[in-house]
Amino acid sequence: MGTALRCQDKIGYKQTMRSAITNPNASAVGPYSHAIDAGGTVYLSGQIPLDAETGSLVDGDISVRTRKCFDNIRGVLEAGGLSMDDVVKVTVFLVDMADYAGMNEAYAEQFTAPFPARSAIAVAQLPLGANIEIEVIAQR
Q1: Rounded distance, CA 104 to CA 8, Å?
Q2: Which of 22, 93, 99, 128 has minimal Cβ neighbours within 10 Å of its Cβ?
Q3: Whole-angstrom Cα distance, residue 47 to residue 32?
Q4: Which long-range contacts (CB under 8 A, 24 or more apart) does 23-29 make?
Q5: Rounded distance, CA 57 to CA 1, Å?
Q6: pLDDT score of 29 more than 90
Q7: pLDDT digits 0-9 by tens, 76-96
């Protein structure tokens, strides 16, 4: 799963274990972990529609790119022994809100009821020129 680090809050009352989760089939495009497990709550870093083999964004419309983001998310979750059924919160970042309907169509394929809580946010830019990034929080 990764390395573990004990963390203590500023007041010093609470001590938690923080473990990194790494997807062996993906690479990070910066100095961050694919995910962190902090006491059973797992925080995934945002995933863009990056093809790990080529290091490039996948070609296609927003539906194709949304599905690739979720493929990448699924890989990180599986590396941590989790599945999409463990996801409790999703945040979607879109460069163009005109892509919302296409994203939503592909998004609906990823989950079953009860659906995770979700936010969709318009942003000016995303890493590597991506037009979508998705991050999730999962619970063990």
Answers
A1: 39
A2: 128
A3: 12
A4: 23/72, 23/75, 23/76, 23/78, 23/79, 24/79, 25/52, 25/75, 26/50, 26/52, 26/72, 26/75, 26/76, 27/52, 27/55, 29/127, 29/128
A5: 26
A6: no
A7: 999 999 999 999 999 999 999
Give the model's confidence band at 26: pLDDT under 50 very low, under 70 low, under 90 confident, else very high. Answer: confident
Please report, as a single letter, which amino acid is at residue 29.
V
Q: What are phi and psi of 129, to 5 degrees?
A: 80, 15
Q: 1 vs 51, 57, 98, 128, CA distance in Å?
A: 22, 26, 38, 27
Per the structure, the count of domains in the chain is 1
In CATH, what number is assigned to the domain containing residue 80?
A: 3.30.1330.40
Taking the C-alpha atoms of residue 42 and residue 21, their distance in angstroms, rounded to an integer, is 9
